[in-house]
Specification:
CATH architecture: Alpha-Beta Barrel
Shape: globular
Number of helices: 7
Largest sheet: 8 strands, parallel
Low-confidence stretches: none
Number of domains: 1
Order of helices and strands: EEEHEHEHEHEHEHH
CATH class: Alpha Beta
Distance between the termini: 16 Å
Number of strands: 8
Strand order of the largest sheet: 1-2-3-4-5-6-7-8
Strand content: 15-25%
CATH topology: TIM Barrel
């Protein structure tokens, strides 16, 4: 059974479909390219120009991870917003979805989503928030990706057609993560796998 790992930092080969997070596209894997909010520095504009060029490669299927981290990022909120706006423009110009890192920046993200009127899918990766937060993001048209650690209430509050699954930086096999999520949702592994693949097609991830 084929499983989609929407976001991983693990380059090790396996039998499943994975989207490898990275700042370059020098891999045969499907991957995403972007500037993580932890890595925004004074040289981000020149780095972004390299990312923008790489984003046009066929194996790059998403932009990111990028977004907001108002706890760990050394960049100010305003700079993080400026960087994210560039990723929005890149997503729209390449017709590729965005993989979003979001820590304590939900208000800023929702406002940008409203103002930008984006057409490409926005996928919140590694979501561990509460059901109320998930509902806000879903009501704004976003997708939610869950990993090894998640809030069961938030998972249950997420419609199946807005759901993704990932391993992120975990060493746990993606099949085990799928199984734990399927159990909470009362689905078979096959039902969940097929739904996630359908969601990926709707977002033009694969």
């Amino acid at each position: 059974m084929l499983l989609l790992d929407i976001h991983t930092h693990n380059p090790s080969p396996n039998e499943h479909i994975k989207i490898l997070n990275g700042h370059t596209a020098k891999t045969k894997n499907f991957c995403s390219v972007g500037i993580h909010p932890w890595e925004i520095d004074d040289d981000w504009k020149s780095r972004f120009s390299i990312i923008a060029e790489a984003a046009n490669r066929a194996n790059v299927v998403a932009i990111g991870e990028c977004g907001f981290d108002l706890i760990k990022s050394r960049a100010t909120k305003d700079v993080q917003q400026e960087v994210f706006k560039q990723h929005i423009e890149l997503s729209e110009s390449t017709n590729k979805p965005i993989i979003i890192h979001l820590v304590k920046g939900q208000e800023q993200l929702l406002q940008l989503s409203k103002n930008s009127k984006h057409k490409q899918a926005w996928i919140i990766h590694g979501f561990r928030g509460k059901p109320e937060q998930a509902k806000q993001l879903i009501n704004a048209g976003m997708y939610i990706s869950f990993g090894e650690k998640f809030n069961p209430g938030a998972l249950k509050a997420t419609p199946l057609n807005r759901l993704f699954i990932e391993s992120d930086d975990s060493n746990r096999p993606i099949a085990e993560i799928y199984k734990s999520i399927a159990d909470v949702l009362g689905l078979s592994l096959e039902q969940l796998a097929l739904q996630v693949l359908e969601n990926a097609k709707q977002c033009r991830v694969i």
